[in-house]
Design brief:
Layout lengths: L13 H10 L1 H4 L5 H17 L16 H10 L7 H12 L3 H20 L1
Amino acid sequence: MTQAPRQLHELHDVYDFLDEIRLRPGIWVRWRSLQHLDSMLIGYHAAMCVHGVDEDFPFWTPGAVSPFDQWLWHRNGYESSLGWATEIEREAETAGTPAIELFFRLLDQYRAERRDAVR
């Protein structure tokens, strides 16, 4: 069963937001580019900070390495200064798969591992 799109006011966190993007990536992300998604998520985080919202946000940490970058480094077996969007786009190109699809597969893995770690 396909999930119906929700209105922005119905979303609770960045993961809900990303679930909406997953439903219709072509509407949300220009050219399905992870660079554009990364910029959008940085804007999301900036808005959270401006409005004093405290939320788990693993995609960008000003002045530090983000949790998602650290997870990706561990998964790939090396560190990179390029950031998660560029690294995933490179991996997708090598694998011949759309980068946005690879991002969502990796996001699912990241979230599953974090849930397992909490248990």
